[in-house]
Write a sequence for this structure.
């Protein structure tokens, strides 16, 4: 089952200094419950790709389909986790996750239950009433993951989520993310410039190779799980 389909995606930034082609004719698919990593050198367009898929950035041409429907802007069918901790410092852990929950008339009791469930999944149920400054870096990223998952998106888009963590914490978070991924019905697209991280996490690695001005090469590598 194809979840995300990207067809000939091209993104040209137009600015005072002229044009920059950040993505050129990029095509790939991700399947249900697949863990796909995108790697490539700095400046090859990784962030542009994920921001475009998130709907935070428009694209110049091509198609982005989620469950066969065109992506036109941000939506709760996609969860996002960035490198920086994008938690609200003035809100408790619970309220931070609650903030991500599109309520749609959901009674607050039900919303609380929903949030508690996701905090349990990331192992932070005891920290529901803590504030972000009281948490370690890894714990903050776990809150961000809970917030990204609380609307039960079809795909989780992660942009170097563990890039700011020390090596030991990063390693723990990688294991933790794999555990979450195995336990729920989620497809993950994960950007990293760390090849070891990609090999550890991914079913499939997409290598974005930039040739300025030319068609961008996308090399696919399958990674069998042990
Ligand atoms: P990566 O995440 O792989 O480092 P980016 O997607 O950030 O790559 O950048 C791809 C290219 O697009 C680079 O040449 C970068 O300078 C350019 N770029 C990124 N964002 C913008 C922007 N907002 N305006 C103009 N150029 C940009
Ligand atoms: P990280 O999540 O950044 O890897 P650690 O797991 O090293 O952080 O934990 C940092 C501190 O927070 C430690 O003192 C640890 O005991 C505590 N801690 C982290 N997660 C939990 C948890 N689920 N329950 C209780 N304490 C925790």
């Amino acid at each position: 089952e194809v979840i995300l389909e990207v067809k000939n995606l091209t993104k040209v930034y137009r600015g005072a200094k002229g044009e920059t082609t950040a993505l050129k004719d990029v095509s790939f698919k991700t399947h249900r419950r697949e863990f796909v990593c995108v790697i490539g050198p700095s400046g090859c367009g990784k962030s542009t790709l994920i921001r475009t898929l998130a709907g935070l950035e428009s694209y110049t041409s091509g198609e982005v389909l989620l469950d066969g429907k065109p992506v036109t802007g941000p939506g709760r069918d996609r969860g996002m986790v960035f490198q920086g901790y994008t938690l609200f410092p003035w809100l408790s852990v619970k309220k931070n996750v609650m903030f991500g929950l599109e309520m749609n008339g959901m009674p607050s009791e039900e919303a609380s239950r929903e949030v508690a469930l996701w905090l349990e999944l990331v192992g932070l149920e005891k920290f529901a009433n803590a504030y972000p400054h009281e948490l370690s870096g890894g714990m903050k990223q776990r809150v961000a993951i809970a917030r990204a998952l609380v609307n039960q998106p079809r795909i989780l888009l992660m942009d170097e989520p563990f890039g700011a963590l020390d090596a030991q914490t990063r390693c723990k978070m990688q294991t933790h993310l794999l555990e979450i991924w195995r336990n729920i019905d989620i497809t993950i697209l994960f950007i990293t410039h760390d090849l070891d991280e990609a090999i550890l996490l991914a079913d499939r690695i997409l290598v974005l190779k930039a040739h300025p001005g030319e068609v961008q090469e996308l090399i696919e590598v399958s990674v069998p799980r042990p």
Remarks:
- The first strand starts at residue 2 and ends at 15.
- The chain has a mean pLDDT of 92.
